[in-house]
Amino acid sequence: MAMDKPARQDPLVTNDADNIGVSKRSAAAGSIQQVGTRQVTLETTVGMGHKVALAPIREGQDVMKYGFPIGVATCDIAPGAHVHLHNSASRYTVIRDRESEK
């Protein structure tokens, strides 16, 4: 009996609860990323090791990685968007805008 090959997985996803994946290589804006049966089109170029939204993430919703909340969305994040400090806040560190402290 032949086994079906698993679908190619571009971003690394470690848990079914994850709503982001980690790019295993640099990928250009407009490229299609495959995760199981899902596909997302990158909005911007993403570097290796950076996070990509796999599903819509609403403002205030947890950013899930490894099956745990690692941050919270500070605005709505579309599938294929780069997830970083410009649209999410860490649950583990306090990041201050040094300009606002002046």
From TrEMBL:
PANTHER family: ALTRONATE DEHYDRATASE (PTHR30536:SF5), ALTRONATE/GALACTARATE DEHYDRATASE (PTHR30536). InterPro entries: SAF (IPR013974), SAF_UxaA/GarD (IPR044144), UxaA_altronate/galactarate_dh (IPR052172). GO terms for biological process: D-galacturonate catabolic process. Keywords: Lyase. It comes from the Bacteria. This is SAF domain-containing protein. One of its GO terms (molecular function) is lyase activity. It holds the Pfam family SAF. Gene3D superfamilies: 2.30.130.110. Residues 18-89 form the SAF domain. The keyword Lyase applies.
